[in-house]
Amino acid sequence: GPELVHYKVDTARFPPGKLVLTDPQGKAVPFQIDGQVLAFVASVARGQSVTYTLAASATDRSAENSALKCAFQGDGVEVSNEFLALRLPKAEGKTYDTPVAAAAAPAPLTRWRPAGTEQWIGGARFATTRKIRSHSFRLLRQGPACVEYEARYTFEPKGEYVMRIRVAGGMPVV
Fold it and tell me: I want to staple 99 with a disulfide (CB 3.0 to 4.6 A). Which of 7, 45, 80, 131 is the partner?
């Protein structure tokens, strides 16, 4: 099945900006290079081997054929692929003067919906009596192959909760 894969890439040999990654049929595959790491979704059947080719291109073709979207909406970030959409809090951090009830802090996942529907459903919440001292939300990666988001909470007097969400095109899981 599809899997998000990572490979070290020599950016001196393959400078980001004018590249294309192709599958065995020659079709462009969405990819991103973060630092010196190439990331893309690969599909390899059990017992098979597949060759993907990274090559120079006249234009940047990293987002070609990507179904992944990341849009900033007033109060948050919407991340979607061909299977689902997630609404996440906007990137920010806050330290409370007085720790707050966990239920009073912003949830790490505001809501979600299956692709093809207009109705938002679900979300996340804390079910604890612990108090939160601080929270932070960050977009860690935002490329045509994957979007990665982190929600981090610090509890009073100690403890931490971290939720990482990764959405990639072609993959029905988060």
Answer: 131
pLDDT tops 90 at residue 45: no
Is 154:126 a contact under the CB 8 Å cutoff?
no
Contact 57, 20 (CB under 8 A): yes
- Would you mind telling me the total number of residues written for the chain in this entry? 174
Whether 106 and 62 have beta carbons less than 8 Å apart is answered as no
The answer to whether the CB of 16 falls within 8 A of the CB of 56 is no
Q: Which residue has the tokens 């190439």?
A: 38
What phi and psi, each to the nearest 5 degrees, are found at residue 103?
Answer: -65, -20
Is a pLDDT exceeding 90 seen at residue 18? yes
Whole-model pTM?
A: 0.90
Which structure tokens are listed for 28? 């462009």
Whether 44 and 87 have beta carbons less than 8 Å apart is answered as no
Closest CA to 155 of 120, 129, 137, 173: 129
Which residue has 């059947």 as its token pair? 45
Residue type for position 92: E
Structure token digits, residue 134: 């601080």
For the stretch 9-21, what's the b/e string if a residue is b when 16 or more beta carbons lie within 10 angstroms of its beta carbon?
beeeebebeebbb
